UniProtKB/TrEMBL annotation:
Ranges where the Type I restriction enzyme R protein N-terminal domain occurs: 33-142
Domain of life: Bacteria
One Pfam family of this chain: HSDR_N_2
Record-given protein name: Type I restriction enzyme HsdR N-terminal domain-containing protein
Length: 144
């Protein structure tokens, strides 16, 4: 995988497979196409948007319709409430209505006021107003 962001990451081959160092989980993770997108989004949240690392959770489990699911990234506000839910897909996966609906379903559990879906090429972010049952597409990720 070539990308000008590669210099921002540490890589290691483990048992013949490429891994990427995850600064939040403090370990090397198998480098899949989706993990590449997740690590790039994480880097942007921390280094460009200045989201505090201590308020970010990766691959958190949740139960939805009696099924065990995982959210890719959840950012919490300073009171511990979910602030932003991010769903990451591999670059070749188009960001379509199904992906937005998946993130929205996960957010029924978290109730974060912001959701984001990305494949690393296209990123869409939405503000969710639960009181008025209204969703607004944003031009960029929210400031923390």
């Amino acid at each position: 995988m070539t990308n000008n962001l590669e210099s921002r990451f540490k890589f290691k081959e483990i048992e013949g497979k490429q891994h990427i160092y995850d600064t939040l989980r403090n370990k090397y993770i198998l480098l899949t196409p989706e993990e590449w997108v997740r690590q790039n989004m994480l880097w942007s949240l921390i280094n460009e948007l200045k989201y505090p690392k201590s308020l970010i959770k990766l691959e958190g489990g949740l139960n939805y319709n009696k099924l065990q699911k995982r959210t890719d990234i959840v950012v919490f506000d300073r009171t511990g409430k979910p602030f932003l839910l991010v769903e990451c897909k591999a670059q070749e996966v188009p960001i379509d209505q199904k992906v937005v609906e998946q993130a929205s379903r996960y957010n029924l559990i978290h109730k974060a006021p912001y959701i984001c879906v990305t494949n690393g090429v296209k990123t869409f972010c939405f503000h969710i107003d639960f009181e008025n049952n209204k969703t607004t597409q944003l031009k960029q990720l929210p400031d923390f």
